Amino acid sequence: MRAVQKWAFLFGCILVAAAVWPVFPALVITDVKASRPVMYIPVHDGEEFVISFVHSVNKRPVYDHIRVDGQYLTIVKSRYDAFGAGMPETAVDGKTLTLNHDGMLELSGVNYTLPEIKLFVGTVAQHALHIKNKHILLSSLVQPGEPLQFKVMKVSYLQMWKGRCLYD
Questions:
Q1: For residues 42 and 57, is the Cβ–Cβ distance under 8 A?
Q2: Paired strand residues for 99
Q3: What's the pLDDT at 113?
Q4: In 3-state terms, what secondary structure has residue 63?
Q5: Of 83, 54, 79, residue with least CA distance to 64
Q6: What is the SS3 assignment for 44?
Q7: For the whole model, what pTM was predicted?
Q8: How many domains does the chain have?
Q9: Exposed/middle/buried for 47, CB within 10 Å: 0-12, 13-18, 19+?
Q10: Which domain holds residue 134?
Q11: Which residues of 52-84 are buried (b: 16+ CB within 10 A; e: fewer)?
């Protein structure tokens, strides 16, 4: 009987370790003010997602395409349909600005890599995350005016289970 108890204990320890050990990458969205994750999204290297918003000056939509690069996030390109403050009107610094067949301007070659992305959820900007064929309004995660952080981290099954998680 003692041998069975030892094996059961060992098996239990292995299960607990597997549940709490950070084993797979996820996009972790954190409420900066509260210092707590509000969403976990499993991701893989090379996967892309989009953060969209309504531009504050010209009131037109902007789509920033972001790629997961290991533990980093790379802003790959931006798409928009009208110029405004901060929206490039010409190609500069090795970037390419093209007019696509759908009427959208595309600034490609941005390739700006960051360890994390922080943004304040706008009150009229309608910030949204587009990932895994889902559309998530960021105002559903925090109140407008509050900051969110996007970061790729290794997480455990327990973290995923405890938090709000988005699967395919």
A1: no
A2: 105
A3: 93
A4: strand
A5: 79
A6: coil
A7: 0.81
A8: 1
A9: middle
A10: 1-162
A11: bbebeeeeebbbbbbbbbeeebbbbbbbbbeee
Does 157 reside within a domain?
yes
Instruction: For residue 157, give the H/E element and its range.
Output: helix 157-162
* Helices then strands, each counted (H, E), the chain: 2, 11
CB 131 within 8 A of CB 27: yes
Residues whose CB falls within 8 Å of the CB of residue 69, separated by 6 or more in sequence, listed in order: 45, 46, 113
Let me know if residue 168 belongs to a domain. no
Q: How far apart are CA 19 and CA 21, in angstroms?
A: 6
Confidence of residue 110 (pLDDT cuts 50, 70, 90): confident
Banded model confidence at residue 2, pLDDT cuts 50, 70, 90: confident
Answer yes or no: is 167 within a domain: no
In a domain, residue 72? The reply is: yes
